[in-house]
Every structure is written in C-alpha cells, then in structure tokens.
Amino acid sequence: MVQLYNLHPFGSQRVVPCKQEPAQFCCGHDVLFVASAAASCGVEVFAVRREGRCEPLGSFATLGPVLRMAYSRAGDYLVTIEEKSKATFLRAYVNWRCMSAGSSRVCVRMVGHKMAESYTETLKEQMSIVEMALSDPPLCISCCPVNGDLLVGCKNKLVMFCLKYLVINQNLTVLDFERSLIFHIDNFIPAEVAFCARHIAITTELDVLILKLDYFLISKWNCLNTLIHFHCLGIKDEDLAAHSLQLELDEFVVCQKPVELLGEESKLCKIPITLESTELSTEDKKHFQVQYLLFRHFTPDQSPFGFCEETKLHSVQFLPVYQTGRCTCVRNREQERTTESLLLFSLPHVGYLYSVGKLVELISTYQYSERSEQAVLTPQFLHVITSESLQCYTVRCSAAAARDEDPYIDTTVKACPPVTLDVCTLRMQLFIGPRAICHYKNHIILLTKADTEDITERRKPSRRMLSRKADSNKSRTNSESEPGWNLYIINTVSTIQLYREMVDYSRTYENVRTESCIHLLSEAHLLVRAAIMDPSFFKSDDKEELLRAFRESCAFLGDCYSRFDTKDYHLALPYYRMSGLSVAEVLERLASESDEIQTYERGLIFYLTHSLNEELNEELNKVLQIFYLADPMQLPDIICSPCMKNVCPLTAVKYLCKVEDIMPSVVLTLTKAFMALKMGDLTMYECEMNSHKETMLACGFIGQPKLLGEYREGIVIPTEFAVHLKAMQPGLLVAATVALHENSKIELEEADMFFKMLCNNGEDMVPQLLVDFWEALLVACSREEVLQELLLRVTYQYVWRISKKQLPETKPLKTTEDLINSCDHFGSIFPWVTFIMSMESLLDKDCPEDISKLQSILCGQSIDITAALPILDPLAEAGHVGLTVRVLCSTRLGKYEESIDQLLRQCPAAAVLYAQHELKDDSRAVWWNKLLPELCERARLTRSDCPVLISSLQETLSVVAMELELWDFLSLLPEDGTAAFFLPHLLHCSQRKQLM
C-alpha cells in the first residue's frame, strides 16, 4: 500500500544551457555530461554548482551518435556506446577534465595498448580515448561504483573489464582496462545491466537475474591454459518439470506464469552460464564462479490500468550500502567497504526494491499511479517519471543501513522504523513530456520533450509548475523559436525544510488517523537519519541542526508510541532514550493543560517502568498520579525505584492508602511502613508492621525486593528499611532475605555482600547476621550444590571462631537445638561426643554454641566430609574439641579402627560408648578384632592402675560373649589372664549357647 501525501520535496529549477538537443546524459561526481542528438556528435560537459547552477566546462567530439553512456567516479571516466556507419563502438573517455583547461590534445588507443615513450611527458595534459573491441555489438553498460570495473552486455554474453592503474613514472599514473571475464549466456539478450561489488543484475524485457561473482586464487601451475572454460550450472529437465516454471498448455495458447526464485532455488531459472577467463597468466590468478541469488519472470501486465502489451522492465540499478567506521551510510564511494546493496527494477506500473547481501529480500513494492518511463533510486527518495509528471517516493535505504550495522537495533536502547514500512508518495509534480531522468546529490536532472501542440500549452502559467530559472537572459518571443525540449536541474529542498513540513503535516492526523501520524513521523525520522549517515555530514554546515532534528524526531515518535494505543507501544522507550530527554521533560511534554483525570496508554507506562530504575535526581511526583490511574498495583515498585528517592512520602502514602482501600496487600503495607520510616513516624511504622504476621511480612518482600536493597552497578545496597530491620527485627530481615533467595530474587553472593555492607564489618569479616542467614537458608534450601556451599561456609566460620576463641558480635538467632529440630543437615550430637565434652573443664569451654553446631553438622549426614577436611585442620590440636572432630571425620570415612586408637590414647573411657554407637552391622567385628585385643594389651601393660580400662574391658567382654560362639570366644581370651576375671563372661557365653 502506498500512502499519498502532498508535500514539497522539489525546490527551484534551472535550465541547462545545452546548445543541441540532448539524446543521452549522465551525472559525474560534480559534472553533467550531455550527448547531443544532432549530427554534430559531441558531448557537452557542465559543472554543477550549488543551487543547481550550471557552468559549461567544455565539450569533446564523439565517433558518432551516443546510444548509451555511463560515468564512473572510481577512475573519473566516461564510457559510451556510439554508432557509426551502422556499427557500434565501446569507448572510454579518460582524463577528460583537461578539456576544460583549454587543452585540445587527444590520444586514441586500444585497450591494453602499451603507452609509447613519447607520450610520457605530455600524457597529463591530454584526454585519452580507450577503445574496447568486442566480437559482438555492445547493447548496455554499467560501471561498478565500488571499484570502477566495467560490465558490458552483448547478445548472449556479458564482458567484464577490470579498471587498472598503470604507473608510467613517479609523477604520472594513467588508467587502463583489462578484459578479464566473459559470461556466456545462451539465448539471452540483455536489455539492461547493473554492476556493484561483484553483484550483477541483468534484465531482459520480462526477466530479472541477479548473480554474485565469487573468486579464489589458484596457482598458475594448476592452470593448463590461460583461457579457463567451465560451466557454472547444469540443469536437469526433471528438476525444471517439478518447478513452478512449467508451461500451461492450452489448446491454442501457451502462457508462462510469473515466478520468483530466491537463493538456491534460483538455479532452476533455465539460464545456464559459462564463464571464460581472459586475464593474462600470472603467478597467482583469480578463479571465478557464479552464485545465483534471484530470478524473477514477469508476464504482460494485466493491471487496474488495463491490459498492457508493451510491458517491459526498465531502470535496473544498484545502490551500495557502505559501512564507514562507526557510522553506516548509503553512498557512492569506491574506497569504502560495501556490506550489501539495494536493487531497484521497475515495470510500467510497479517498482521493486530488494536488499542484496547475505540474503536477497524484497523490501518495498511501489505502485505507480500511472505508466512509468524511468526511475532513479537515491539514498533518500525514489524519483519516477511518467508521461506527464515527476513523482517522488520515500525509500528505506537508511533503515536498511541501520539494520545492516546492527541487526538487533530494535531494543530498549535504540530503534529505527522498519524497512517494510509502507512507501509514501511525497509529490507528483506535473511536467510536459518527461523523457529521461538521472540524479546527482540533491539535484534531479530531467529531460522533457514536448510535442508541437504542447508548446503553446506550456506557455500558459500554471500554479502546479515549479518556478523556472534560466541561466540565459535570452527571452523567446514566439512559439516558433522556442524548442520542444528542455533539460532541467531540479533542486530538492533541504532535509531540514522537508523534515519540518512532514512534522507539521503529521499534526493534522494526530486525533484522526494515528497510523498516518506515526507513518509520517517515521518518514521524517528516516529522512534525517539518511542525512546524518551521509559522509559529508561531518563537514556540513547543518550538522548541529540535523542532530537536533534527529533527537526531535525521536521525541515525536516517542510521544506517538506513548500517547496512542498501538501494538508497538514498547518503542516509546528506545525513541525517548535516543531523544536525550529526561523523564521529567518527557512528562512535561505529555502533561495535559488541565488537572482533569486522563487515561495513560501502555507506551508511557512501559517507558516509565523501565526508565525509573535509573539513578535520577528529579522531582517526579507526577509519576505517582500516572501509575495510580493507569496501573495502581505497580505503585510500590515505582516508589521504591532509585529515581524516586526524592518523592514526597506524604504524597506516596496518600496514593498507597487509596490503592489499599481497593486492593489490600502485604506489599502495600510494607511500602507504607517504608514511607513512615522516611517521615520518621515510628508510630505509623509499628502500626503497619503489626498488621500482619512476621511470616506474611517476610513473604511480602518477595513482591518488592527493592524495599530492602537497591541495585547499583551489580551490587545490592541496603535501604533504610533494611537498616532499621537489622536493629529492631533481625529475624524478619533474615527470613525475608531467605525468601528472596528461594524465589530467585537475590543470588547467594549478592546476599553475602548485602549483609556485609549492612553490618559494616569489612569485607574480610563475616557478621553473625550473615551466619544467621546461612543457617536459615540451610533449613529452607533444597538444591544440593547450594547446600554443600552453605555447609562448608558455616563450618569454616565455626572453625575460625573456635580456633580464634572469637565470640559472635551479636546473639545468634538460632541455637544448636533449634537447628537440629528444624532440619536434617544438623544431626543430634552422639552420646560419646557429649561424654568427651563433659570431661572438659568449664574454664576451657570457649564458643560453646559454635562447638556444638560444628559437632552437630559432623554428626549429620549432609556435609561432604572430604571437602570439609581442609577446613577442619586448625582444630587438629584443640583438646577434646579436636578429638571429637578427628574421630567424627574418621568415622564418616569408615576408619573405625583409627578412631578407636585415637580414643584409647586420649579418652579411653569413651571407647566403649563409641563402639556401642558406631560398631554395628558390617563394622561389628571390630569389637573382637580390634577393641578387645587392644583393651587386653593396655590392661596388661598398666596392670590394675587404670580402672577405666578394666571397666571398658568388662563391658567389651559382655558384648563379645553375646555375639561369638564359645570356642571363638575362648580363642580371643589371653593365655595369661586371670580365670576369675573371665569366668563370668565364659559362663554367660556357654549358658547362652545351651538356651539356643
């Protein structure tokens, strides 16, 4: 769909003072070449100045009438197809600028001809005409804007000439061409060709074929001949039969369907190509191959304008997209790297614009209002001429360039109108008999030829015609002396002027058709973006004004997406950010003139929601009213945002109370308590906090984590609320932080930093409140990897305090008993551990809570004892505590005999208690294999000096007598033992046997 607006992109116009009727013309870098239609056979050259003024630079003769002509900025040469004696010739005019300096010397030579020595001194001051011989007459030509190479279309072939720079001496470099490649295409007559950065477009009357020329280097030793022939494509008949290019055969008529083939599919176009390399043999040479990108076939047009027998393609052209440093731009510069190109071709009533890069994609389709004669694509517009008008359409060059630079441009930071935006007709300017058109910077060169009956009509004034400024002061007195043709240079208005007109025009649609308003502002934005991307922008006098217009256009688009109910409302955020406006300035733009209640659309809410998380120093009380009306449940989140730190607490409480009356929640209560703290109203604070149970309050923080901490550069900074809770309700603070962690609102490392900053103990010190958090998280957490990390952390902290005899700075929130009763990770302390600790004097019992918690963890089954061993090393020599830790670790590792040895050495009274608790099932044999022999041996050595050993031995014998057979039991008894000591146990063992 084409949007039609009546804007004024065309400014003043001037007449080019041609002496003869133009037949062909084209623009150079800063000049206009005009080939005459008269028998004089020459080309006039005009310098194009500012505001379209033309100054004659000179002229030069051609061999015959010019049929086609093209200019290449790379190499600054003009190439023509000329006719003489019914034969056509291909010629390149090099160093033509010397003609304007008054030199009349001309050198004519064949392509590749070696320069004669006599020319070396005077070659600078003469124009060179390079004739390029071809085996078939040239039909069409195209110069590559990137490197200046030349592509010539002939019947059944294309010929490519590479531009070369020949160094004659240190002061003289001349241009030459080398015929490097021939494309042989059977049964194919090109009507037009376009060539850009190894991309080739060929059109016939109804076909378009887009190719990409790839090459790689091969050694000359792999080349048997300097001519290389190979086929790029072999098409099987069955492949074609299966495709949509089938012919529908009727009884009398055969009609071919229109078809579009993209990418790999385009190989089925039934146009095989054979390449012939004609470069001279060198050490390393290029090996070419062709990649098919697009094939499109059209049929005679049957459009709303009627059946058209003369449907033909025209105006095929590439517009390269270049990337220069940090700025991507669309321009014609041979020294910059091209990343992709835009391709245009037209039918009489429809134009097609494709992007040609990694992928080939149709960007825009242009529906012309009447039959077109020719079209020309520029970075900002598409200009089309019809039989009686010059039409101007918008294009998407700047949008394509922006997305080529950054495929993910539509984010929360930056945005750009889409490439597929509906095209827009800016103007349809009436002219009499437009025949041909070309473009140079902000100038349109237009050739008109009026019929005899149109001349009189043209003399009548018309408001719709542009003012005509002629360089010549000669006045024409009658229609007979006035020619029926004119060559105009039409100046397009400045970007800023047209931008302002588009913005003013868009206001007429604000309250009627919001889509049209957004569309026009998007066009204005793309217009300014294209101007900023132009390489001349940095040296432009309008640089600052264009930047202001760019920011202003972003602000206008932000207004649209925030005020209108559109599906792309989220774009308000990136456009406002690109505008450079602060939140307060945005609100001021959108503020109504009265204080009446108004509705706020999703775009504004989306923008504010994302923008208020930034650190701002602005008065934003208006935001509270907006969210109260638009999304009241977001008020707590807004109030806790960093940029709302200066908000009036009384105003915030007023809106919170209004919302709570309708939809009460714990989050609202907590937010009101936060505001009460800011006001210093402790009575209100206590009232709010006492309105819910502590468990509910802890869960309430899940809904609004920013009540406790603010994120700044990846760090959670405690709020005033968190500081107050630390002093008054540390249990609630810990429970709330655990709830946040379990609901993925805060990570473990973030929580560590949060508590360290809150307690201000230094980064190396671990505050007790953080240990309380770890212990509470052990109770709630179920993830194994987090559990092990927490167990090792609390173990390390217990060990550090015990070894340093450092008491916690605050009272722990949970005792050992609390932890044992609340989770399985803290086990009940074993009786033998309790017995060993009971033997320690009261004076030696430092950090009793930490000791019992450490022993409880080791008595549990959760901790990875292997990972904990390095942490427990500092307690190796720590008396009874160290003994219990070592024995617990040995036991967890299954080293029961080692544990018994340690106990017998340091606390033999606990050996039997240990055995009774630990030596069960598979480890029960340790009783008689290890413990009984050890006790007997130690009792023998100490005689009767150790009653503890004797008592332990008796208890051991009682257990062993119950477990072993009589003969096995007798074999364990020492031979030098006292019979009276062992007799009761033997009797018990034998009686147990009889009973069984």
UniProtKB/TrEMBL annotation:
Example of a GO cellular component annotation carried by this entry: BLOC-2 complex
Spans through the membrane: none
Q: Where is the BLOC-2 complex member HPS3 N-terminal domain?
A: 3-477
- Output compositional bias ranges, type Basic and acidic residues: 468-479
Per UniProt, residues of the BLOC-2 complex member HPS3 C-terminal domain are 497-993
The UniProt annotation puts the region (Disordered) at: 457-481
Q: Which Pfam families match?
A: HPS3_C, HPS3_N
InterPro entries found in the cross-reference section:
HPS3, HPS3_C, HPS3_N
Name this polypeptide is given: HPS3 biosis of lysosomal organelles complex 2 subunit 1
Q: Which organism is it from?
A: Meleagris gallopavo (Wild turkey)
**Encoded by which gene?**
HPS3
